Sequence to fold (552 residues):
Amino acid sequence: MGTDRPWVAHYPPGVPREIELDPAASIPGMLEAACARFADHPAFSCLGRTISYRELDVWSARFAAFLQKRLGLARGDRVAIMMPNLLQYPVALYGVMRAGMVVVNVNPLYKAHELEHQLRDSGARAIVIIANAGAVLEKALDGTAIEHVIVTEIGDLLGVPRRQLVNFVVRHVRRLVPDFEVPGTVSFDTTIGHALRPEPVALRAADLACLQYTGGTTGISRGAMLSHGNLVANVRQINTWFQALSHPGEEIVITALPLYHVYALTCNCLAYTELGGHDVLIPDPRDLRAFIRELRRWKFTAITGVNTLYQHLANHPDIRSVDFSHLRLVSAGGMAVMEATAQQWAAATGTSILEGYGLSEASPVVSINPPEQKAFSGTIGMPLPGTEVALRDDEGRDAAPGEPGELCVKGPQVMSGYWGNEAASRETFTTDGYLRTGDVAVMDARGYFRIVDRKKDMISVSGLKAYPNEIENVVTMHPAVLEAACIGVPDPATREAVKVFVVLRPGMNATADDIRNLCREHLAAYKVPKHVEFRSSLPKSNVGKILRRELR
Fold:
């Protein structure tokens, strides 16, 4: 099946079987071409401020020069970026890559031990961080290779006078910035407030661009090594797929998903940069009233999201006040789209959700439904141009036609492996070079795929990944807990919710709130168990391994 590609016969008109990729292709090369072509077009907007491609070009070049000439960082050094959707993110992202360095995307909601692991594993020498997360960084710094800390405030790049900044923060920031002490920090303004030019770096497609951390099948966070070629290839695959809907220099895309997540990184930031698109950044989509007020401001042509986002928007009473007449592309990934959500969205907006499938290790997009589709299909569509897919059984053989098998992928968007972890890389790839996704799928006669099950124990909470091992490790830190097991259970709001089963030590006590409070100290909020069940024992195999499948 991997080489036959029956889906190609059903591709949208004009979409080729393969994508040509220049060996010299790089993200900075793509950016520079876009900035030259669309210099005076709007590039990014956030919180009432818009920057042009000309400004993006100048500021990202200055940021690159600062890393090289003021901080003394070298080509290939890793630079972590830890912030929500703000104008500073694309400036830092493109600046790091223009300096020939490697971006390490970090969730700004991480707690100290989560951040510490990622910084240690990546060997990052510098971090660009939102001030709100400074106290977390302070706790995580020991034992890392971090030498330079660039701190950005919410109001940076917004043109807000300092005397108005206090009022601005009150309006836009829900909580105060906790006090923290990290010596030698540099302000974000300093990194672009100079006239230095970066030293040119000759990048090629094979050069590493980004470490995108993912838990894989084990729950141990690992850095997927995404090259410039991987990311450029996926951008070209996506933009070729949707070429009939796209008008370069005229697109306005709503970015509510966080840019540190690979979905928004590629499908919003990178893909729309190549198109000269205008990317509207939403820092906090949980504030639905403010989010919808922002939607009213724009004649937006595209939006990306996960099932939960579309569900909440479609059910909000203010959604009917939004003009959807210019909206041509509504894409969804990260988690399965529920049919009820698709129907509610269509009724509220008059548009259809196109569901796709991807994973961090594939930059991320593997497949998507065709743009001409007008009704919910329940499938993840067809593999993108240049992508080979095979369904394999547990012995690694091709599954029989119509039978389920593990979805295995090969293509120019697939990573080379995990950073510093050759054993995990070997386990993740088949002997003939396919990436094992851990998801079980079936294919119909047209080459459309449907996910039917998951080999992974990963839990998807509103599209965010939670891993049982990580949660179990925290729960068992409680002195009263003997052992614990974690699974995902269905949830109408988030698709899945975290449930933990706990066995207490004899004669000791703990409540569900005790368990949750411990988790809140060490885990991001979405990983905190919604359900806690106490049991006298847990099902185990004959070698003592806890059997999560029996708990499910």
Notes: The chain has two domains: 24-368, 459-551. The chain has 16 helices and 25 strands. The radius of gyration is 23 Å.
